[in-house]
Amino acid sequence: EPEVTQTPSHQVTQMGQEVILRCVPISNHLYFYWYRQILGQKVEFLVSFYNNEISEKSEIFDDQFSVERPDGSNFTLKIRSTKLEDSAMYFCASSVVGARSSYNEQFFGPGTRLTVL
Amino acid sequence: KQEVTQIPAALSVPEGENLVLNCSFTDSAIYNLQWFRQDPGKGLTSLLLIQSSQREQTSGRLNASLDKSSGRSTLYIAASQPGDSATYLCAVSQGGKLIFGQGTELSVKP
Fold first, then answer.
1. Which residue of B lies nearest to A109 if distances are taken between CA atoms?
2. Which segments in chain A show pLDDT lower than 70?
3. Is the pLDDT at B96 greater than 90, yes or no?
4. What are the E-state strand segments in A1-111?
5. How far is B110 from chain A, CA to nearest CA, in Å?
6. pLDDT of A17
7. Average of per-residue pLDDT values in chain B
8. CB atoms A103 and B32 under 8 Å
9. Are A31 and A41 in contact (CB under 8 A)?
10. What is the per-residue pLDDT across B2-36, written as a single tens digit (0 to 9) for each?
11. Which of B34, B41, B101 lies closest to A106 in CB terms?
12. Which of B20, B40, B68, B70 is the most buried (most CB within 10 A)?
């Protein structure tokens, strides 16, 4: 069964460093998302992406964050200068149709645990 | 602003029991509602999607209902098994994103 994959599974970085989290969405999906979950808190939406453009973004997704689809299979989240409070599990998700459709079912990857020291 | 709440926060039941998990949301203008399962330190597995025009969906031992007007959904698990132990999350689709509840941590004892 097709699934979303993410690498690395765990990333440790120093405060102020740049990190890139990678995702391979399900191959026939056209809509891509990043969410994060700080330990013990709710899963929070960061950004959605379609047709090489950001569709929606939350107030969390500030200028330190960027997303890119560098080729036909990968979808990346970059954090330019990490802060301690960026420590969280980051989930990538994908869907066939967009999130403003009742048919939108999002499929999530296993996550990347980001630890900022 | 949409708020999603799940009750109870944790639930422990003996194996074989039928159980109900609850999810409530404050704004009924949603596209759909999705139930997920999350194992410790792992990703989210989609269990059921209920479109806004639907009342319920079934998959195996799972049955989810949706009452948009009252802002409620329930996930019914029949004949629970130890392998069902996990955190169950509900999320509503609104404004181009999923908005999650905090989850119900379920423990099924053998």
1. B43
2. none
3. no
4. 5-7, 10-13, 19-24, 31-37, 43-50, 53-57, 65-68, 75-79, 88-95, 107-108
5. 27
6. 97
7. 95
8. yes
9. no
10. 999 999 999 999 999 999 999 999 999 999 999 99
11. B34
12. B68
Do B98 and A41 lie within an 8 Å CB cutoff? no
Pick the residue from chain B with its C-alpha nearest to A33. Answer: B97
pLDDT on residue A101? 83
**Nearest CB to B34: which of A33, A100, A105?**
A105
Tell the burial category of B49 from Cβ atoms under 10 Å away from its Cβ (0-12, 13-18, 19+). buried
Q: What are the chain A neighbours of B95 within 8 Å (beta carbons)?
A: 56
Would an 8 Å CB–CB cutoff place A35 in contact with chain B? yes
Query: What b/e string do you get for A12-28 counting C-beta neighbours within 10 Å, with b at 16 or more?
Result: ebeeeeebebbbbbbee
